[in-house]
Amino acid sequence: MNILAIGAHPDDVEVYAAGTLAKYNSLGHKVFIATATNGNIGSATLSMEEIARVRKEEARRSAAHINAEYICLDYDDEMFFESREARLAFINLVRYCKADVILTHNLTDYNPDHELTAKIVRDITVMIPIAKLKTESKPHDVIPALYHWEPLHSHGFLPTHYVDITDFIEVKKKMCSEHVSQIAWMEDNKQFVADENEDFFSESLITSRFRGIQSRVRYAEAFRLADNAYAVRAGSLLP
């Protein structure tokens, strides 16, 4: 299968789906990691152009750990809005990847970029085969299965599926650790980190441990199957 994980910003995918993507890769599936924005406000010192370049390179290095292709749609961080052009860009992305499964944000989250990414993905999955919607990549007949990962701090999120990532937790750590600029950015914004002795990604590992406890394994990542027609599947296409 072809697996596409779509986050709003560089590092979003790693926080809640890196272990699952590593597991897909280990089973021989093709993995793509995409971000809607380039993260160009994520620095207190670098220019917007420079931090965008840095963050995209960090995302590419992270993706390389699991032989994934990284794609950035290059919208501005926190200034990403819905439009015809954006919708077509997402359709083109899914067609290019020939995605059988899409993982993305929860529809309710703390960040508008997260929520809009999830909304556009949900809206366009059914449009992938429609030939009159012209994009660079040609339509294909698969309407992808769609799973939402949990929001930051998991507020109000009730999973329908868990993925055991115990054997891939070290890969998840390595992928997160590539995002050096994001760790520095969060250190400059202490309100985003509950414990000053931990970096931003430590909370992700705590969440993975909690989801592991819930699902009776060591570490897990949690997802919710989309409840819209055609994106739903019997059983599970998660690894």
User: Number of folding domains?
Assistant: 1
The ordered H/E elements are EHEHEHEHEEHHHE
CATH topology: Rossmann fold
Q: Summarize the main sheet.
A: 7 strands, mixed
In terms of structural class, how would the helical and strand content be classed? alpha/beta
- Low-pLDDT sequence parts: none
Name the CATH architecture.
Answer: 3-Layer(aba) Sandwich
Quaternary: single chain
Report strand %.
15-25%
Task: Give the class-level CATH name.
Answer: Alpha Beta
Mean pLDDT: 94
Layout of SSEs?
Blueprint: E1 2-7, H1 12-26, E2 30-37, H2 48-64, E3 69-75, H3 84-97, E4 101-104, H4 112-124, E5 145-149, E6 161-164, H5 169-177, H6 180-188, H7 202-215, E7 220-225
Parallel strand pairs: 1-2, 1-4, 2-3, 4-5
Antiparallel strand pairs: 5-7, 6-7
Helix pairs in contact: 1-5, 2-5
